[in-house]
Amino acid sequence: MSIHIRKVLWVCLCLFLSAPVLIEAQEEDILLNISRANESYHEKDYPSAAKIFEDLIAQGQHNGFLYYNLGNTYMRLGKTGHAILNYLHAKTLLPRNENLDANLRYAISQTTDQLHPPLGGFLSGILFWLETLNLNEHFQFLILFNILFWSVSIGLLYYRKPFWLILKRVTLGLLLIALLSTGTKYYLQSGQN
User: Fold this and answer.
1) Are residues 101 and 174 in the same domain?
2) What confidence tens digit (pLDDT) does each residue in 155-184 have?
3) Are 49 and 41 in contact (CB under 8 A)?
4) Which residues, 6+ apart, have CB-to-CB distance to 77 below 8 Å?
5) DSSP H or E segment with residue 119
6) Nearest 5°: phi and psi at 70?
7) Could you say which DSSP state residue 120 is in?
8) Domain boundary pick from 81, 109, 137
9) pTM value?
10) Within a domain: residue 114?
11) 129 is in which domain, residue-wise?
12) Would 74 be classed as within a structural domain?
């Protein structure tokens, strides 16, 4: 092996071994910023808490609790519109959080126009679980039903009985519903961003 190739391999090895350290340092920096923002919030320094939360979101940290805390901060600053916006963002990531629902209802009640949360359309009425599951959970169900469908399809190859054919049709129906549901949730969520 030539010296040049050895140097390249050595540099690649060093980068590969240092990557976890860099990632850990970045996570520590994020956690430090979150704790600074929470400290500022508890010390009633709401503008700096909002700035830190906004910076974290701008860095690509999309977490339901981050949006929730930013919404709470904006409520303390008297910026109800910004609070509602961040609560709605948090709701897409934390659909079953009762505190979030209560804060969103309270923020909406503080508006002069007495707004109502946006209602889903026809498809949201049929796929009633759209609002109770977040996008990751939809993808998990899609993967589960996909695995079930293909497992039953393989079982049908070995056991040619009417039961397996019925089971294949049922799992295909569940897979198609999960696909429609996941696609709808993705479309609705990408439209909000």
Assistant:
1) no
2) 999 888 889 899 999 999 999 999 988 988
3) yes
4) 46, 47, 50
5) none
6) -65, -40
7) P
8) 109
9) 0.64
10) no
11) 122-192
12) yes
